[in-house]
Amino acid sequence: MFTGSQSIERIPGYCALCVSRCGSIAVVENGKFVALEPDPSHPTGQALCAKGRAAPELVYHPERLLHPLKRTRPKGDPDPGWQRIGWDEALGLTAAGLRRLAAQHGPESVVFSVVSPSTSAIDDSLAWIQRLMRAFGSPNLSIAMELCGWGRTFATRYTYGTGMGVPGTPMPDLENAGCILFWGYNPSLARLSHATATAAAIRRGARLVVVDPRRTGFAGKADVWLRVRPGSDGALALGIANVMIGRGGYDRAFVRDWTNGPLLVRSDTGRLLTESDLSPGGSARRYVAWDAKAGCPLVYDPALQRYERDGAEAALLGEHEIATQRGGVACRTVFELYAQLCRRYPPEVVEALCGVGRDQVEGAARILWDARPVAYYAWSGVEQQSNATQIIRAISLLYALTGSFDAQGGNVLFPGVPAANVAGEELISAGQRARALGLPERPLGPSRWESVTTDEVYRAILEQRPHAVRGMVGFGANLLLAHADVLRGRAALTALDFYVHADLFMSPTAELADIVLPVATPFERESLKIGFDVSPAAQSLVQLRRPVVEPRGEARSDTRIVFDLACRLGLGAHFWEGDIETAYRHQLGPSGVSLEALRESPSGVRVPLQTRYRKYAEQEEGAPRGFATPTRKIELYSEVFLEHGYPPLPGHEEPLVGPRSRPDLAARYPLILTCAKHTQFCESQHRGLPSLRRRAPDPEVELHPAAAAERGVRAGDWVTIETPEGRIRARARLNESLEPGVVCGQHGWWQACPEIGAPAYDPFGPQGANFNLLIGNAAIDPISGSVPHRAYLCQIRRAD
Ligand SMILES: Nc1nc2c(c(=O)[nH]1)N[C@H]1C(S)=C(S)[C@@H](COP(=O)(O)OP(=O)(O)OC[C@H]3O[C@@H](n4cnc5c(=O)[nH]c(N)nc54)[C@H](O)[C@@H]3O)O[C@H]1N2
Ligand SMILES: Nc1nc2c(c(=O)[nH]1)N[C@H]1C(S)=C(S)[C@@H](COP(=O)(O)OP(=O)(O)OC[C@H]3O[C@@H](n4cnc5c(=O)[nH]c(N)nc54)[C@H](O)[C@@H]3O)O[C@H]1N2
Ligand code: SF4
Ligand SMILES: [Mo]
Questions:
Q1: How many C-beta atoms lie closer than 10 Å to residue 796's C-beta?
Q2: Which residue, 150, 176, 273, 482, has fewest beta-carbon neighbours within 10 Å?
Q3: Which residues place a Cβ less than 5 A from the ion ligand 4?
Q4: Model-wide pTM > 0.90
């Protein structure tokens, strides 16, 4: 549009800055990006948050990296001696460095460290980065999986055979839910598109249950808010399940037909009873239930998902002496064992363990049943725990009781627009996959899927265990702000032979690289998005996001960097010889949507999709599809866990750094420390954007007025937070809704905002505010390596 000599352009697209990916319109005046506005015609475009509205400040930020840089002075020197170089030299040096490491130490000696797609626009490029990593031959992706995605992506697979809540897996069907359950999840700040859908659901009468130690926005609106003691969530889930089972308020038919609840467990070995236990010719792959009608064992064949006798009635509860080939063995059904476990958590025990009133436990159990179907989402509150895996299992089992899995209004696998998978799983050999760092210690953990924990990376660099890591390719990821053991992390990154890092800003982590590459913001680069995850309507949208303005300086998209680097590494054949358009065409192939059509419709093209429910019951090759687990049922009981020495049922485990497990520490550090994301900023980013920093100038810690008064602390005072690991400073914010023994901090503070005179913070010392200096990597989840950023012990004092 031209008004006089002014040109105003309104460009549809979406804000890619976080997991919400809100539909938006960029306003460009005379070639300058001046504003980002919501696009209500987009399925995720109802609203934008302050971060999205600050997008122009991000694009034009004076400290953006604009040129490739080369270090000229040794690491550890206070002056890195950054020298500006051209892209050709930067990519050449990078390819040479990586090839040398691959030749001398194997490609597994290079870790690919990537910012989480939940906090950034790396979603644009993640599949291509994974493709590069696999084509290169490294199985070591460091992407904060142990803190952010383990529960949603992998831990739930041990129960449902699928992730829950990440792209390509079931999502809460908020539009149709009768009851919404948010467990350690605060979408009001974390995912705006979920927040608007939840607000709409509440308006039409959906019920809401929130489990959170803090009274978040939705906790304030909930029918039941369960103020759980940090890290005791497993006991709470078992306790709610106990009430549901005790009252018969659960979906008995679903549990009987679609979980492994009816299968018998041998009391002597803990194994599922098999047909081979019963008779010489019996199969070890067929299991045994109890036929309630006939009063005798009943063989179950997981391949056909059928019991041996039609019309038989598998009993859910019960204990039976079974005549095996080697004599009688007492057996109980899985569900009997689960119900017994739950009975150890009656409301009064839950009250004592979790700090949640009995009435509320009962109330939650009632709502989850009466107001079903239940749609749920669990996130950071339960991911960053030393008992994360079993908490997530306990919640998964509770959810199974509701029978809402893949039911309308439950958690539904929405259909997706067909597209080619380009993440390159086929490009890495099984031999290389087996070199993922964490596999020897945690064979069921993230490394099974080529995701490694940061602690594993630090150890492999510093101690060469289980093998040496000498190189790193960083696409964002601010490891030294995002992860525990900060000082060890700094030592590790300093010790790398070769580290290349692509970023928007020179973060404290980037500062330790040999080569730094400038990345374009999402508003300066094109990207293809196939489906927006949160609803069927959102899933049907394919959009080619246009760049709003040209990249500043020499900044390039991560995708461009990946394709160019691939060619330099001799991997061009896997990357369409560097031609991104052809790669997009390949990706879009199965969808039937052309790149031309997408260019013509910048608001996106909708591909009609039909949502089907309860797909587990659909017939496939003569049997119901079932679930992708060993028993083809939802696994309340996990034999896989048993085989690896972990409890097959998710009994409650105390947080490893907590008042109950470490009374010795609790005497000196009497407060329970948790943390939460910041409304104004994503993780360790955005502190330099004036409009955001003005609203939140200082790092804060929330504490109860009573805890504050006891320490002579008033609102706004600077305090120190101290743990056995370290000490930092923050400003006290009083919060009456907390349990008085719980405090809640913030992570990610390092960057200054000179425009408003707001300071930087030392990431490595006690005068700074790097929360993760407070957390160690010693006490972690044995299965996943998750680190307890959400349940630790600390002391707070007034700062002098
Ligand atoms: N504004 C903003 N949005 C973001 C991000 C951001 O940094 N800022 N980050 C993005 C990323 S990477 C992610 S992973 C998502 C995360 O999104 P969320 O998981 O919603 O993030 P949080 O607010 O950190 O944590 C959710 C809640 O967990 C609670 N909590 C703390 N300890 C416990 C506990 O022991 N048990 C339970 N049940 N709850 C607990 C906190 O009080 C908090 O309200 O958000 C994404 N979106
Ligand atoms: N105490 C505590 N620690 C936590 C958490 C917590 O809640 N509490 N949350 C954890 C979680 S859930 C996560 S996901 C991690 C997050 O940790 P990280 O994944 O490291 O995420 P950020 O700190 O948001 O950003 C890291 C860097 O990515 C850069 N960046 C942003 N966008 C892009 C892009 O498009 N391309 C490239 N190349 N770079 C980009 C930013 O400039 C920044 O320097 O932190 C974890 N650490
Ligand atoms: S919630 Fe905010 S930062 Fe995230 S995509 Fe939406 S507007 Fe962007
Ligand atoms: Mo995250």
A1: 24
A2: 176
A3: 116, 118, 148
A4: yes
